[in-house]
Design a protein that fits this description.
About 80% of the residues lie in helices and about 0% in strands. The chain is mainly alpha-helical.
Length: about 170
């Protein structure tokens, strides 16, 4: 992928994240969904981890987390750390992760979200030294993660359209 296409695709991805963050922050509470807050930033990071092979991936994760942190009280540092850990786990497994069916995509996304939760929980436990908070957080996380996992096949198709390479143009330019 050329650098211009990577930058354009990433900017469109950030724009999509901003739109989704505005919807979940402003409109969900307006219709009575106060406790439900889907974490689309995690879906974006999982997509980037699975689809991209670039040394600037940690920078992309940091930028996604910084934009997400503008809409939440969650710290960007824990999410960035968890995202990089996920990328380190996914990196060697990329050739085996074929998101060929919606069910496989849902299962992989749910599994990676659980790993994400564990990484963040360990960091929070070291900071707060309060295990009961992590248990409470898990019960909020579980339904949200399942809904996000169910949405992931459609969301990944949308991101695939944003990140797709223009093969015809690249062949002409070659």
């Amino acid at each position: 992928m050329k650098i211009g296409k990577i930058i354009t695709s990433f900017l469109l991805t950030i724009l999509l994240l901003l739109i989704l963050e505005i919807v979940t922050t402003a409109f969900f509470p307006a219709i009575g969904l106060n406790k439900y807050r889907p974490t689309f930033n995690i879906l974006i990071i999982l997509f980037l981890a699975i689809k991209l092979e670039t040394p600037i991936l940690p920078i992309f994760i940091l930028i996604v987390q910084l934009f997400h942190s503008a809409f939440t009280i969650e710290g960007w540092a824990f999410g960035t750390f968890a995202g990089v850990i996920i990328c380190m786990i996914v990196g060697p497994l990329k050739h085996m992760l074929h998101l060929s069916t919606p069910l496989i995509t849902i299962l992989i996304v749910e599994l990676l979200q659980i790993v994400w939760f564990i990484v963040e929980s360990v960091l929070l436990f070291f900071r707060l030294d309060k295990f009961s908070f992590i248990i409470e957080r898990f019960w909020l996380f579980l339904p949200e993660s399942i809904i996000i996992a169910i949405c992931s096949p459609l969301f990944f198709k949308l991101l695939d359209m944003i990140w797709k390479e223009d093969k015809d143009r690249m062949e002409v330019g070659a």
